[in-house]
Batch of 2 targets.
Target 1
Amino acid sequence: MNLPVIIKFVIDLLAVLLLALGIKGLSKVKSARDANRLAAFAMSLSVVGLLSYYLGTSGVAIQSWIWIIIGSFIGSLFGAILAKKVPMTSMPETVALFNGCGGMSSLLVALGVAIFPISSGQENFDFFKSIINEVSISVSVFVGAITFTGSIVAMAKLQGWLSTPGWTQSKVRHFVNIVFAVASLIAFFDLINGNTSSIWLLVIVSSLLGIGVTLPIGGADMPVVISLLNSYSGIAAAAAGFVVDSQLLIVAGAMVGAAGLILTQVMCKGMNRSLVSVLFGGSLSAQSTASSGSGEYTNITSCSVEECALTLEAANKVIIVPGYGLAVAQAQHTLREVTKKLEQNGIEVVYAIHPVAGRMPGHMNVLLAEADVPYEQLKEMDVVNPDFPATDVVLVLGANDVVNPQAKNDSSSPLYGMPVLDVQEARTVFVIKRGMSAGYSGIKNDLFDLPNTSMVFGDAKKVLNDLIGELKDLGVGEK
Amino acid sequence: MSFISLLWVLLLGSLLGLELIGKVPPTLHTPLMSGANAISGITMLAALTLIVKAEGNVPLLIIGSVSLGFALFNVVGGFFVTDRMLAMFSRKPSNKK
């Protein structure tokens, strides 16, 4: 072994070690930030390793340098700008977009190798010689394309650019997707038989399959899909590793693929959904509109911000249930103002965080941390549920399905079995909401009909601002 | 590298990935997802290889360059955005009386 080979070998080993430590560290709150930087460092190290290897062996042509610089400059620039500018509330679609681009990259590498079998003397870099290479190319194209189109559809749905078309909720979609899958298989075997042009067929049908599988999935299940697609992009990277014969790519891709799968599993558990029902069951809302979505509210009590403020002032213990609506209204900072006032008056304030609060598991924690809410005040569902009977006031802000008692009481409800926050156990519940519209699931919320529940209608941010004014008038927090 | 040893690498890498994430608190689901997502942009190495091996084949150079761009968009954006999220957790809890 000559020197460049040894250097690359050592650097690759080091990079794998650091990446593994990075993923490990990311699963603990204390070490997460350093772990993320460690992983970023390992990635740059791997680039240095690869480039120094080529410089030491075959050399890198000036033309290659130019294209390397153009590609990396544009990609990094846009990536950095988006990462800095995007609001915390749009995190799910941002992750989906980044993920899709990773899949696209693997797809392009495999495509490039498939169309232009490159040969460079010494290393026997001739691809289309063995079936193995064709299999790796096909897998890389197939998984890469599904990751790309799937992620883009997921992003578009989360942004609200795409809705769920009706036909995708019928059995037709299974038929359509099976047709795409079979067509991919045909293209795959055709490719192995030596028909190079069928790579295009593979690209097209696997892209369509990615769309066909993601399109029917409803908003609430989208995080699970993104996590799964994230796992796919790891598999695509590993397949690309087989294509260019790189162990580092295979290890890193396999690690991300496997870790992504575990994360998907954990998320499914938190939402009480099985992965199979997420992927093949269709969106929850479409099923429910037929069954129990038509129920009418009979006993709605609405109240003014002033009454709400009076009740809050008299309370000893307040639990806040933040949800998607709070994230959309970007009201987390205003909420923090309100709770500060209450705390100054000696009222105990706790935030009850449902595992899927916000738009993605853990998203609400990020948003509240952004608003400077102390970490200790964020309580997870299992911890906070026994506290509700001893609580004077619960403020539900833009959450809906996660506080629906139907999930516990009504076995015919599509929500039945989902873990929920038992807010109805508290003495008084205020639900701050824009109107009577249903949540993600499209299901009527029995909580709103209960005698101890009062609705405060209005945009979360505006209501909270009014609340600050009312509390001021009452002299709360003026000590 | 023979194909068989590459398969071993794949197997062991997958097992490592399964083991690495044992208990993840829900708080970290979002950052972990976006951090792992950035790592999957490791396919930038494949794009680099493609460009270096292209030997003046311009269409291939372009494909490689576009692929590299997509990969780095994923990597750079992913790490930055993860850091932004995690920065909020590491902030000192505000001192209240």
Target 2
Amino acid sequence: MTASLPALVRYQAALLVGSYRWLPPLLAYAAFLAIGVQTGGPILDAYGYAAGGLLPVSVWLARICATNEPPAARSCVAAAAGPGRAHLAALLAAVGAALVLALAGAAFVALLSDPHSTGHRVAVPVLPATGAGLLTALVCLLLGIGIGALCSPPVLRRPGWGVPVGLIAALLVLVLGASPANAALRGMITGSERGTVTVPWLSLAVAVPLASAATALACALGGRRG
Amino acid sequence: MPRQEAQRMRLDGVGRRYGLRGPWVLREVRLDVPAGALLRIEGTNGSGKSTLLRLLAGIDRPTTGRITGRPRTAYVPERFPAALPFTAAGYLAHLGRVHGLRTPEAADRAAEWLARFGAAGHARTPLAELSKGTSQKVAVAQALLAEPELLVLDEAWTGLDPAARDTLDRAVAERVAAGGTVVFVDHDPRRLAGAASARYRVADGRLLPRERGTAAEPADGVDAGAGPRTVVEAEGPPGSPPPSGLPGAPDLAPGPGNSLRLTVATVHSDALLRALLTARPPWHIRAVAADEPPGPGTPGTPGTPAPGEAPRP
């Protein structure tokens, strides 16, 4: 196949931007940050909060991108590039959109928060804290995209089921102790109490294969819908 | 033109059903898709024609069996949605890049195909504001600008105005003349009549071959084997045979003087002329004329002139 993945992602990104369906998740995430991130609050707590909110927003964005194309238009692209690559491009566009939100959220936290521990006693270095915050956001983003890929066509095709199942899955992944997202967030919160920066390498090492497997499953099913 | 000569596309024992326990839409489909062929698929509504086309286009995958040797493919759906946030030119540039073209090349070809279909004035129009017919022209241009090796048309003519339908007919003939394969479904039994190299019928989930131009088996009451034909009177260098592999596989007969009469389905006439004029050494064209309809070929339409032969008002 000569079809290039960058061209596919560019098409999907343009489709997302032009459709304005990114606006509701953006507003929801902005409101979430505006409510929870306080001026002068502890920086690691705020990064954890921002990352946690990114998870359901990533689920939402993945669902938007997976369902953004009218079927006939999707058929044209699938014939040229193969249905699996077409679907992969849609999910990668969602990753890009979620990354933009993650960076904007991190910048918002860095501007407003106080680089100290929860009790304001221990100073927290801003750059390592920001690095850990971004990696925590990345863990949540990847898991969110993975959940979104599994809660959208072609994996979950029943209309009306995707949104509740996706929301419940996002909540469970945030709350359950075994989940890498929960581990990364706990690391940020306990780190904030002690004034130490915990980089969630292990969570990332688990989240990457999980998200990849979910994406691969969704793309492999791409040609078997209907 | 890049072509994968080594592998030809084949469907081997292909079956498709939806769901684990759904009925078989297609079963045991065996089909060779040679390069340079124009295949017509027929069948009643719901017979599985569209499913077969989606399998051929690679949009859908078979439940059983294998499809091998897929070339570069493009697909045109019957109804193209206007619900995309692009202009016509913008959408075509995106699809050209997806097909592997560079941006300037994609833009040039998009402009060329919109112009050929008489939609050049709509290049900057958002797709959402286009009429149904103009949207369909964009869908057709999307597939043709890639010069695909396999072009799959699912009633792509529906919604096009008559001039655009003729343009699409000729574009199909060009694709075939260039060595590409075209597979199509159309509800008009006269569509590309006489030009198709093979016809198949989908019935009860099976794919059955049909003889070319069988007058005894009219499709939907109209004989589909005979279509408008064109006679080209051409003169080659003395003693030299006509070039091999001429578009549309013309019938050859000696003409007046040293000339040769080549009779071909009208949609192939442009491609045939191009092939003759650009042959090495080139042929001289003496005359081009519409052929008389073949006498016994139209039993299904008593009292009416053969399609395409009616005088234009």
